[in-house]
Amino acid sequence: MKRQTETLGGLQCIVIDELPDGTQPTHVVVMCHGFGAPGSDLVPIGAETLRAFPSLRERVQFIFPAALLSLADQGMPGGRAWWPLDLEERLQAIASGDLRILRNEFPPGLDAAADALSACLQEIQETRGVPSSAVTLSGFSQGGMLVTHVALESSEEFAGLSVFSGTLICEDRWKERLAARSSLPILISHGTQDPILPFAAAEWLRDLFQSSGWPVEFIEFDGPHTIPQAALIAFAKRLDNV
Fold first, then answer.
1. 58 assigned to some structural domain
2. Residue 77 forms part of a structural domain
3. Is 99 part of a structural domain of the chain?
4. Which residues, listed in sequence order, are joined to residue 29 by a DSSP beta bridge?
């Protein structure tokens, strides 16, 4: 497994692949980590996917951008965030059952994160020589929210969108964008015992896509805030078919 670091669009990225020397990928997977995790958090998923599906090894490259913000000053050395979170507000909403106040929030800092990821994606396409239709966007938790926003806001047509343990935010804006653009394949997975982003929020996200006629594969699992094996297999199978 080849692993290197690269700055793409201003974001520090870890790049892994098993491509033959001197060749470019024909498909790129961009995976964005969640709040509080380091940029390397999801790298094992890429490595496991390439090991499990040999047909991907000579054509797919995984790129893992590190989020904009360091959380070292909040007692999380190495931890990063795409935008600041009011954890107390979120926990209070979960405790009270009033999650609807969060589904239409447009978090401060989301635009800056989206701009940074969009610049990263542009440089990926330029340096790899691939169109947006050969790029799969994926993300976990806050990273899942970010890639959803970028996929909807962009004029580019990506290969697909995978959201692991994400949630619905920006509801009015996303609904407007869904109506204005063509669909792409969606994969969503979420645990019914998730204490951080409750399962109902994932159902809202699924329903938003489906109400606009977008194809959604929804994987429900009995577990917490994580990515289950079933979701990883479904994700890899999608890559095997692009």
1. yes
2. no
3. yes
4. 62, 136
As a whole number, mean pLDDT of residues 55-65 equals 96
Domain that holds residue 65: 2-69+82-240
**What CATH number is attached to the domain comprising 180?**
3.40.50.1820
CB distance 239 to 56 below 8 Å = yes
Please give the single-letter amino acid code of residue 134: A
Give the CA distances from residue 97 to residues 82, 101, 104, 137, 184, in Å, rounded to whole numbers and listed in that order: 25, 10, 15, 31, 32
Q: What mean pLDDT is predicted for residues 87-114? A: 77
Mean pLDDT, the chain, integer: 93
Residue-wise pLDDT tens digits, 169-226: 999 999 999 999 889 999 999 999 998 888 999 999 999 999 999 999 999 999 999 9
- Which strands make up the sheet holding 2-8, listed edge to edge? 2-8, 11-17, 60-65, 27-32, 135-140, 160-164, 186-191, 216-221
Helix count and strand count (H, E) for the chain: 8, 10
Question: Cα dist. 19→3, 41, 130, 159, 207 in Å?
Answer: 11, 22, 15, 20, 38
At 109-164, the pLDDT tens digits run 999 999 999 999 999 999 999 999 999 999 999 999 999 999 999 999 999 999 99
Residue 59 lies in a domain: yes
5-20 confidence digits (pLDDT tens):
999 999 999 999 999 9
The total of structural domains in the chain comes to 1
* Complete DSSP assignment for 44-55: HHHHHHHHH-GG
| Nearest-angstrom CA–CA distance, 51 and 139 | 20
pLDDT higher than threshold 70 for residue 56: yes
